[in-house]
Amino acid sequence: MGAVRFCVTTGEDPRADERASARExxxxxxxxxxERARGGLAATVLAARVEAALVLGRxxxxxxxxxxxxxxxxxxxELRRRRLERGEGCSRDLFLEAAGLRPGDRVLDAxxxxxxxxxxxxxxxxxxxxxxxxxxSPLLAALVAEGLARHPVRxxxxxxVVAADAAALLADLPEASFDVVVFDxxxxxxxxxxxxxxxxxxxxxxxxxxxxxxxxxxxxxxxxVVVKAAAPDRSLxxxxxxxxxxxxxxxxxxxxxxxxxxxxxxxx
Length: 268
Known about the structure:
Helices cover 36% and strands 22% of the residues. By secondary structure, it is of the alpha/beta class. It has two domains: 6-71; 76-265, Vaccinia Virus protein VP39 (Rossmann fold, 3-Layer(aba) Sandwich), CATH 3.40.50.150. The strands form two sheets. Strands 7-6-5-8-9-11-10 form a seven-stranded mixed sheet. Strands 1-2-3-4 form a four-stranded mixed sheet, sandwiched between helices. Helix 7 crosses helix 9. The longest helix is centred in the N-terminal third of the chain and has 14 residues, at 16-29. It is globular, with a radius of gyration of 19 Å. The mean pLDDT is 90.
């Protein structure tokens, strides 16, 4: 599915502050704000002459698309973040083990999706760190941005979301401007997942990760580039990445390449 035209609206019987907040969100995402129609969300979308709606309340953000309402939730990302917050470390989280994040790191999540890895990374890098999440779908980017803005934990405030094509953005970023760049491309053979992932598959970028994009990421990454894939996908090896041993027999596998700055420093 290509870019989806959407508007911002409110839940039923919004308070004045909820309506004002939704208007501000519409301005941030550069889409129209539309008052909730009496006929419901389908009537609201029809009246706005768009295909979808970002539905915002005080505590929740949802996407309404093709008659279905998808309420944002950090899901397993929040459960993983809580484990880290409790001091259980990175060894039980394959993503954190692969990324090797440190307090104060700047991380570029080039395939944001639902922002679950980004939220976990935000907990790992701490108050001095920051996450930039890049999502090609404007509706999905807006849903995650507004969902995280309503998330009660401090880590969520460390994630900034932009709607952009990651390959183009990486070409414009300064060299070594992030410590780690991570990719989680859409799996060609989807693993069993929750309902929200249906929305990701409908809106997300299904193109395979290209070697040129990885090279651009290596230029931007000070330390490393990390890519996730689903077993038995051989794309990690095809991209010239080192397959991390700990993920060799897992449903999800990780590959890594050193940032070009690190490679030059090491004389590689």
